[in-house]
Amino acid sequence: MNNNIALKLNWKRTFIIGFAFFGILLLWQVYDSWCPTFLTELFKNSFNITESEQVQYLVGIIMALDNLAALILLPIFGNLSDKTKSPIGKRMPYIIVGTLVCAIAFPFVPVFFYYNNVAGVISMMAIVVIFMMMYRNPAVALMPDMTPKPLRSKANGIINIMGYIGGAFATVVGIFFVLSDYLGTNGVDTWQYHNIWAIEVPFLLASVLMVISCLVLFLTIKENKIEKEMAKEMKIGEELSDLTEKVEDDKPLSRGNKIMLILILVAEFFWFMADNGISTFMTNYTIYYFEASSSSTMINTIIGGVGSVIGFAIGGIIASKIGRKWTVVSGLSLTLLSYLIWAILSGVLLGFQPGSGTFPIYLYIIWFVKGFGMSLVHVNSYPMVVELCNSKKIGKFTGYYYASSMAAQTVTPILLGSILLIPSFDFGVLPFYALACVIISLIVFLFIKNVKTVKTTFKKGLEAIGDED
After folding, report:
1. What pLDDT is recorded for position 120?
2. Domain boundaries, the chain
3. I need a surface site. Which of 59, 91, 230, 281 has the fewest CB within 10 A?
4. Helix or strand (DSSP H, E) at 8
5. What predicted TM-score, i.e. pTM, was given to this entire model?
6. What residues contact residue 275 under an 8 Å CB cut-off, 6+ apart?
7. What superfamily in CATH does domain 11-222+234-451 come from?
8. 44-62 burial, b for 16+ CB within 10 Å, e for fewer?
9. How many other CB atoms sit within 10 Å of the CB of residue 344?
10. Backbone phi, then psi, for 187, in 5-degree steps?
């Protein structure tokens, strides 16, 4: 093997694999945008409380309990799918079952909310999260299963673009089906005020599109066949790894690679502490802190998504020039800068007072920069983790990666919700919380050492498209 062997990325197949991530982020966007507010309203009604900040710790606990289950299940499903053998492949059985159960349960979340049933909402949320974890790990593992190591950042960029298209679709739906109008928090008397379809349609659409994306994946990706066809290229990819210490088949990780894995997972934990802490409470921040329309949050998410898509498109290219480590460092630095500016401007306020009914325009710019920065992080960090294993353990190491993110998503809603209980604090603490988490994440990531910049020859132009089978 040598570094002059040209590898090719099958763009068509990578885009099709991306339909799995399309379904994941579509559901997740609807889940994160609506469920925390559903819980807030239910707890306020149950305890006869008027101040939304007083129930955020309960919202955080419920959001965290779902993630705690996922934290346990992700490595289990990853390991199981590595060892599964079936006529339709090792990942597809989990993808199909997980998708179908999620698609059935998800539309019942707003139905139970409409009828003010706390237990029903929480139960449906738990079922969705558990079976999404059955689906998520194997679906994400499909990409490295079929992509040589040096090409995984570029492939991951395509996968994430597809995912963000799913998230963007859900966000656009949220602009037309406005949650704050349904709740009547804006004092606006519209057809959406307490009309069940205003909250049911986004969940139904998410379920239908998840099933369609799963069908596209199942009908076009033949796992067992592709595995045989890719065997030679996957072996070449192992030889062209970014690691200074090679990964040996069926042997424990070397000390250097083990330290690298731990550092990536710790850094990942803290950047998800920031990112998920913000996303969990952003709709509530808009509705209850500024008393603005929840559609502002949706527009903000779309703008952040545009920045992310740009980052996903060029993140792999940047990594091929400066290496994955320094691309991630650059992304974290941009994210840190965006949170710092948010923290400064939220102190100055610039006329956007709490309760003003106006969403701050400067947040649109901040979200674009943050979206671009975090996309550089996501597009390269996952390939760095699966770089540390051979093809027999991709599901297991994917489980490590998502277990770290889920651990953060278990801790951060409870921690941030508890901070909001402090009398002198309100939703204005969000940027300072996120800033602290990203600073820690960046410091940890800088300690990663055993990576190198590998100059690999890739096919270009029409030659790079590869076989379309």
Report:
1. 95
2. 11-222+234-451
3. 230
4. none
5. 0.74
6. 374, 434
7. MFS general substrate transporter like domains (1.20.1250.20)
8. beeeeeeebbebbbbbbbb
9. 11
10. 70, 20
